[in-house]
Amino acid sequence: MLLRPGPKLSGMKRDVVERRLLEVHERLVRARQELAVAEEQLDFFLETAEETRIRALVSETPLADRDWQDAQRHAEVMMRARDTASARVVELERAQDELLGKLVV
């Protein structure tokens, strides 16, 4: 994405944009960390769901099938949490790009 220079900022407005940029950057760092954790947890839940699915197929018991369904639900919840974290990162990156675009002179 090319950043186009915006109108020249006054000193005070530039300070506000720089402060906002710092805040967005800090939030972006935290959001990326949360995304990394969510991806690790998702991998774990997907692995667990696959293992319980195989156990349910082999044992053919209602309890094993219920365990698999529970594990699958946990994986789906974690998938939504990962997607939410990913969307937050994209949103913050977009906000950061907009603020950087305002600083370009």
Attribute tags:
single chain, 105 residues, mainly alpha, 2 helices
Write up what this structure looks like.
The chain is mostly helical. It has one domain. Helices cover 87% and strands 0% of the residues. α1 runs antiparallel to α2. The protein is rod-shaped. The two termini are 17 Å apart.
Percent of residues in helices: over 70%
Tally of DSSP helical segments: 2
Oligomer: single chain
Beta-strand portion reads under 5%
- Provide the structure class: mainly alpha
Uncertain regions spanning at least 5 consecutive residues: none
Q: Could you tell me the number of beta strands?
A: 0
Q: How does the major sheet shape up?
A: none
Average the pLDDT over all residues and give the rounded result: 91
Strand and helix order: HH
Radius of gyration: 22 Å
Question: What is the 3D shape?
Answer: rod-shaped
**Distance separating the two termini:** 17 Å
Number of domains: 1
